Amino acid sequence: MQLEAQSYWRKCTSCKKEIPLGTIYWVCNVSTCNRKRTGLVFCSVSCWDAHVPVLNHRDSWAEERKSPFKNQLESEKIKMENLTPTTSTGTSSENDTLVVVSKLKNYIRTQSGMNTSGDVADILSDKVRILCDGAIENAKQQGRKTVMAKDF
Ligand SMILES: [Zn+2]
Ligand SMILES: [Zn+2]
User: Fold this and answer.
1) Which numbered ligand comes closest to the C-alpha of 45?
2) Residues flanking ion ligand 2, Cβ below 5 Å
3) What is this structure's pTM?
4) Which residues make Cβ contacts (< 8 Å) with residue 133, sequence separation at least 6?
5) 53 Cα to the center of ligand 1, angstroms
6) Taking the CA of residue 73 as centre, how many other CA atoms within 13 Å lie in the half-sphere pointing to its CB?
7) Element (H, E) at 77
8) From the CA of 24, how far away is ligand 1's center (Å)?
9) Cα 132 to ligand 1 centroid, rounded to whole Å
10) What are phi and psi of 146, to 5 degrees?
11) Percent of the chain, pLDDT > 90?
12) How many CB atoms lie within 10 A of CB 97?
């Protein structure tokens, strides 16, 4: 039963071993090996080593990368945006994380000693958005262009 959804990300160029999702892999620093279309990937430095004599590289080294968590072409980009929510200038502000996840987790841990699952930040962000939308409405009704604390 091999369905479309692969359990791995890509196969190592050298040994053909599967490189899992969300794991460290290696790429060649040489730009011709590193091009999107060529896309050589290696499961270990020794597998990268093996291709160096084949392609006759002179100055080359292996670069550490991390494979995406989801098996989608765009997921690497999405992951980067999720990791840097405060600096994200992406167009998808609808789904941005509006709370500082590390501080949130710290707070819950200090208060209760509990852990916080990753999706909590998303739900809280939704709630913050709802609160903000309400405050924006209030400010509008007052004819203001500034949302103030009393709007909440
Ligand atoms: Zn390999
Ligand atoms: Zn190379």
Assistant:
1) 1
2) 28, 30, 33
3) 0.45
4) none
5) 16
6) 3
7) helix 75-83
8) 12
9) 50
10) -125, 130
11) 39
12) 19
